[in-house]
Amino acid sequence: MIGLRKIKPANRDNVRRQLYLAAGLLLCLFIFSILTSCERGHLLRKTTILMDTIVTITVVSDSRLAAEEAIEHVFKELKRLEDSFNFYSEESELSMINRNAGIRPVKVSEDMMDILKKAIYVSQLTGGAFDITTGPITRLWDFHKKDIPDERKIREALRLVGYKNIIINERNSTVFLKKKGMLIDLGGIAKGYGADRAIEILKAKGMKAALVAIAGDIRAYGFKNNGSPWIIGIRAPRGKGDDDLIATLPLKDSAISTSGDYERFFIKDGKRYHHILNPVTGYPADSTGGVSVIADAGYLTDSLATGVFVLGPEKGIDLLRKLNLKGLFITEDGKRFSTGDINGIRFK
Ligand code: ADP
Ligand code: MG
Fold first, then answer.
1. In sequence order, what are the residues at sequence separation of 6 or more whose Cβ sits closer than 8 angstroms to the Cβ of residue 271?
2. Predicted confidence band at 40 (pLDDT cuts at 50, 70, 90)?
């Protein structure tokens, strides 16, 4: 029997060494299991097409089932918002407002009232550089056909642009566009607004952390299940595509939006025509590359990125500084204009 066998002194050292080794191994295993048990829950990611773009939602949750249900709930809600805010569908609530421009006030939903108030607020912040009444001009620009609209038509459409002609009556929940032919286009704010709603739902559903990306409008809360922050990439404005990044940064309980002249554009006679329009001229804002804005809400980063792009790097960064927000312009030749306080940003 092994237990009764006498161990020779030479062997005794060997056994002791083996015991130490086994104890060390056990200790390592113990530490490893503690470290891995620090992973807080499962990470689940789902992608779909909504709001005319790619929507990716990542959540951290203890229950995979609860995570799946929460994400499905968000997708449904985003579809509902999309149906209401759709500029191109005759059936949308927005089209109802637009059709009645210059005719009568229209009773609107709580969401519509909310997004319109937020859009007007950002118009005020940007001195009209962001203006949802650019609809008559956005309609003239077709970036597939690659045609520059008739100058006379742009001039006529410009007479209909002006956020001050949106009349809101909160008591009656109505919206009235003063001039016949006015058109509201929520394309510069709806995705960020959607990201806010998504985060609200995911929090209410008990998700421990989440990252919502609706194209370039991204909002995060909490930390990944391994305890590190969500990392966001900013693409190079003249790079090879979405994966060609110029910088990365951690995003903690806030939102980031990027607007650029590379999303929808055409080039004619060496000039770039893109989808961010200057509400004063009716033509695309100066082609400067891209701008990212960081703030606590997605509606704000989305609309400000669009507005700040119109203002251009100098005035745009000045405005962000005044508002105590963070932002970064990256020009087409790689120059940077920044509020200078983006923690953890890394350039490639
Ligand atoms: P993307 O839609 O590519 O994320 P933006 O958030 O910058 O880009 O929004 C651009 C969209 O906003 C345009 O397609 C148009 O519908 C609308 N838009 C364009 N110029 C303005 C502007 N100056 N103010 C408000 N909305 C605008
Ligand atoms: Mg925007």
1. 287
2. confident
